[in-house]
Every structure is written in C-alpha cells, then in structure tokens.
Automatic annotation (TrEMBL):
Listed GO MF terms: epoxyqueuosine reductase activity; iron-sulfur cluster binding; metal ion binding
Residues covered by the 4Fe-4S ferredoxin-type domain: 182-211
InterPro entries per UniProt: 4Fe4S_Fe-S-bd (IPR017896), 4Fe4S_Fe_S_CS (IPR017900), SCP2_sterol-bd_dom_sf (IPR036527)
EC number of this enzyme: 1.17.99.6
Originating species: Paludisphaera borealis
Pfam families in the record: Fer4
Protein name (record): Epoxyqueuosine reductase
Classification via PROSITE patterns: 4FE4S_FER_1 (PS00198), 4FE4S_FER_2 (PS51379)
Gene name of this polypeptide: queG_2
EC class: oxidoreductase
Keyword set, alphabetical order: Iron, Iron-sulfur, Metal-binding, Oxidoreductase
Length: 443
C-alpha cells in the first residue's frame, strides 16, 4: 500500500496555498450567507452569553467546539395561520418548518465551504425522543432568538419579531467560529398587551395577568404530538374490542391521528398566534379598525365548533365549559409519565392548576429515598406554587417515599393504599393535605 503522504488527496491538501483559517469569518459575509440561504432575518450570539446559561452545558456537551450561535427567522404567511380551517393553518406551519430546516442546512453547507464547522439542530422534529418525558430538544430556539435581537416574548409565549410579528418560525445554527460582532436584544417589546391571544385561546392557557397554563396548552394544542399520542395508544390498548374503542374515541379523532401520522402532527389551535396583531407589517388593520379586526380574525376562532381536549378536573375544563359552551370538552389523559424525581419536581410549577388550588395554603416536605434520594419543599399559597430544594419552614404534611414507588403512584401503576400499608409511602400530618395537593395537579 502507498504511504499516506503519497495519497493523492494528501498531496493536494499539502499543495493547497489558500486555506481559510478555521474559526474566522467576517460578520457581514456571515450575514450574507444566511440571507442568501433564504433567512428573512438573522442574528448572532456567542456561546458565553448570559442568556444561554441554562442551555450552555448541554450544547457544549454535544458540540464542545461551539463558539457562536446563528439565529434565523423564516416568515410565515399570516392569512393561512389565521384560518379556522386547521388543515390550511397546519400546512403553513409544516411548509415553513421544512423551509427553516432547509435554510439552516444551506448555511451549514456554505460554512463548510469556508472551512468552518457548523451544525443545525432541527427547527422542531426530529428530536431526541429517547429522553422523553424530559427535555428532548437540543437547542431552545426562542431564548436564542431574543438574545440575537430577533424579537421579544409576548404574553402568549411566542417570540414577536418587530417587523413580521409572531408569524415566524425559528432555527439555530451552532458554529465553531468566533462571533466578532454580536447582536443585542431589541430595546422594546413588540407585544401590544391587547389580550387578543387571551380572548382567542380555547383552554384559557393565557391569563390576562400573564400567567401561562402550560399543561392546558400542551393537552389541547399538542393533542396529536407525543403526550396525546401516548394517551391515544393507551386507549387502543385498553379497549376490549372495536365497539369499545369506538365508544372511547370518535371516528373523526381516529382519522385525525391517522392524518398526523401520515402528513405530520397537526396543531389543534395556535389561535394565540393567529390573533396577534403585533409587528410593523401586521399592525395596520388592527389600528385602522379594531372592531373589524376582531370580527374578521378573532371571532371565527372563538365561534368555531370543535372538540377541546382537557384533563379532567383541570382549570382548562372549567374554563372551556364556561367561556365556550358551544365547544365540546373531551376528557383525556395527559400521556406524560414522569420517570425521575428530578422531573417530578421540575414539572410541578408547569402542571400546577392555580384555580383548582383556591383556598389552599399549605407547606409540604418531601423526602425521597431509594434509587433517587432527594429532599424538597413545596409551598402552595394564594394560588401560587413555590418549589425549593431541601426542607424549608414548618410543613403541614411530611411525605416520605421510596422514589420508584412514588413515581409508580403518579403513573397510576402503584396503589396508594398498598404503598401506605407497606410503608413505601409514609405521611405525617393530615391526609386531607395530600388530597388537596392532588387537586392542584389533575392527570
């Protein structure tokens, strides 16, 4: 065999006189690469920016060479997103989502030609679903976009671009290159605080005071994504026969799941985005004729007759029954089983149902033993929740539990009475506080 130094590829590499020094690129050239690839706007941040503190370790764990992040925006057509026909709206989401991934891939290709290492995590799916129900995405695109000056978060938890409004999808490219001139957050929030997203949301996930009910949004809008699909599969498994399945699941729901499997998962609402009038390109009709804007854009979404997916006993179930009596609440399971105590504790603020907690003022001390030892304090007061590590304050109820038994209880795989008799779960204090705790987290 010929020596490595005699290989034609090695010879050509040695003879090359013009090689870009790795990790160096002019910022304007980088901007032009992104815009030429199809991005409608772009911003740049360094990996050491404070805004990335909560995801830096994971990014560097996967790509330790990352020095900078490119945030890109691709604009969506707003009229399809506003359509009460969800097929039209979802087609726009899917088409633009594919465009974001294609643009990011084009940027990576152009940077490779420049001798700069880069990678583009997906805009949405595919994700690292093997980590479900924990965090399955590689990069959180929204905080990167805010840090990169591409908008600010509205009360509906969508990034609002100063020009395009919230009719955008986001992507991120990780690069080995230093970022010589970083973007900075814009100095105002395009959100108008008009509360039209509050009025349009069918499950009351967005509160007028800015509160966000994560599980209400997840259960309905993402019904045919991971959690909802898991719940549907369990309905299939639990059905005695075809007739029993048809009693549990309407034919239209079965066909809807088939459509999501065949053509990509479909959002059930996203009405908060549809109703949002913020952004320089979007705001005109709202300012010119607010009543007309409400009638044309928001009212059709409010008046649409449709099933709304809710967890039994949740704030969302009470809300839809009162606010939208013509919509049909469909009681479903959450489909999300927690498999670690860390996940349980971190999920509590997101799953907390503040209206269901009304009147409850209690402090809980948790002590977990066994495979995953931990101590935590949960304080519920004035329809708020606070979770702290360790034992803080005087508890109304002490809960000591084997960690795996507790997780099995939450997943309805273990019987509470069985666990209490065998002292796998022990209570010190009135059991009524445990019942009250459960009402705050229906499943």
């Amino acid at each position: 065999m010929p020596k490595l130094e005699d290989h034609p590829s090695v010879v050509r590499f040695r003879q090359s006189e013009t090689r870009t020094e790795p990790g160096r690129i002019d910022i304007e050239k980088l901007r032009r690469i992104c815009l030429d690839a199809g991005a409608d706007d772009v911003g740049f941040v360094a990996i050491d920016r404070q805004e990335l503190d909560d995801q830096r370790a994971e990014i560097l764990g996967l790509y330790p060479w990352t020095k900078g992040l490119i945030s890109i925006v691709c604009r969506m057509n707003r009229e399809p997103v506003r359509s009460p026909a969800r097929s039209v709206a979802n087609l726009e989401f899917h088409n633009t989502g594919h465009e974001v991934d294609a643009v990011a891939s084009g940027i990576v290709t152009a940077l490779e030609v420049e001798g700069i290492r880069a990678v583009n995590p997906a805009m949405g799916f595919p994700m690292e679903v093997g980590r479900f129900p924990d965090k399955i995405w590689v990069v959180s695109h929204k905080p990167v976009a805010v840090a990169a000056g591409l908008g600010q978060m509205g009360i509906h938890r969508n990034v609002i671009h100063p020009k395009f409004g919230n009719f955008i999808l986001l992507g991120t490219v990780l690069v080995e290159a230093e970022i010589p001139e970083q973007s900075r957050p814009i100095d105002y929030n395009p959100c108008l605080s008009c509360k039209l997203c509050v009025a349009a949301c069918p499950v009351g996930a967005i509160g007028p005071d800015g509160h966000f009910d994560f599980t209400a949004c997840l259960t309905h809008n993402y019904r045919e994504f991971l959690g909802g699909f898991t719940d549907w599969v369990e309905q299939v498994a639990d059905s005695k026969d075809a007739l029993d399945y048809r009693r549990r699941v309407e034919d239209s729901e079965t066909v809807s799941v088939w459509q999501s499997l065949s053509f990509g998962p479909n959002y059930k609402a996203a009405y908060c985005m549809a109703a949002c009038p913020a952004g320089d390109d979007i705001i005109g009709p709202f300012l010119t004729d607010r009543k007309g804007f409400l009638k044309e854009v928001v009212t059709p979404l409010q008046e649409k007759v449709e099933p709304v997916y809710v967890v039994p006993g949740s704030d969302a179930e009470a809300y839809v029954s009162k606010r939208f009596p013509h919509k049909r609440p469909r009681r479903v399971g959450g489909g999300r089983r927690l498999r670690s105590i860390r996940s349980f504790l971190s999920a509590l603020p997101h799953a907390f149902q503040r209206h269901a907690s009304e009147g409850l003022e209690a402090t809980y001390h948790f002590t977990f033993t066994g495979e995953e030892a931990a101590e935590a304090t949960v304080v519920i007061r004035d329809k708020t929740i606070r979770v702290e590590p360790g034992h803080v304050g005087t508890p109304n109820l002490r809960i000591a539990a084997d960690s795996m038994t507790w997780l099995g209880f939450l997943a309805k795989e273990r019987n509470l009475a069985w666990a209490l008799v065998r002292r796998k779960i022990r209570l010190k204090g009135s059991p009524r506080f445990l019942v009250a705790f459960g009402r705050c987290f229906p499943s």
